[in-house]
């Protein structure tokens, strides 16, 4: 049987927004959202032609928009706000200069196997005082994306991704692979405007929960 992502219910989404917008969150902690790829680096290209760099920028912008509607918005910065290519080292340098408490890198996946699907969340193989918190954060996000939106969970994994290795030493950090653009169902998910808002809300909820524990 073909598995599909959950249809987004505007009623449920509205109720969740009312709850989350009523919460009080600290504006003292700084969050850096790394918007993957950009410029000449398109990242993965979906079966329907959408590009990873555009998908993750849309997600990040949706997060910013929802955040502005909070009673007490989180202190969020993006590594890029437009279709610009920023080097990996400059992305992590920005987080360090801002003295970030939380670093989240947004990406989408691709595979030669069109049946590959689901969400992967990565944390750094490099160990530090922030490793335990990063693993907890990764599991929380993966669970939420599965339960709220229907993405299959492919596991929390360890990697030597540069943006993770260069941030784990001073903050909680994780990299999200938000579905496979090579999968018809997951690629189509990103052609719906309401999908971005629902996904952004799920991630924003995760950010709030984590910031409250920092």
Question: Gist?
Answer:
The protein is of the alpha/beta class and 214 residues long. It contains 7 helices and 6 strands. A 6-stranded mixed beta sheet has the order 2-1-3-6-4-5, with helices on both faces.
Can you describe what's shown?
- With 214 residues, the chain is an alpha/beta fold.
- It is built from seven helices and six strands.
- It has a six-stranded mixed β-sheet, sandwiched between helices.
- The longest helix is centred in the C-terminal third of the chain and has 21 residues.
- The radius of gyration is 16 Å and the shape is globular.
- About 3% of the residues have low confidence.
Shape: globular
Question: N-to-C SSE series?
Answer: HEHEHEEHEHEHH
Number of helices: 7
Q: What distance separates the N and C termini?
A: 42 Å
The total count of strands amounts to 6
Q: pLDDT under 50 segments (min length 5)?
A: 21-27
Q: How would a crystallographer describe the biggest sheet? A: 6 strands, mixed
Strand sequence of the main sheet, in spatial order? 2-1-3-6-4-5
Structural class: alpha/beta
Query: Regarding quaternary structure, how should these chains be classified?
Result: single chain
Mean pLDDT: 91
Beta-strand percent range: 15-25%
**Radius of gyration of CA atoms, rounded to a whole number:** 16 Å
Q: Please estimate the helix content.
A: 40-55%
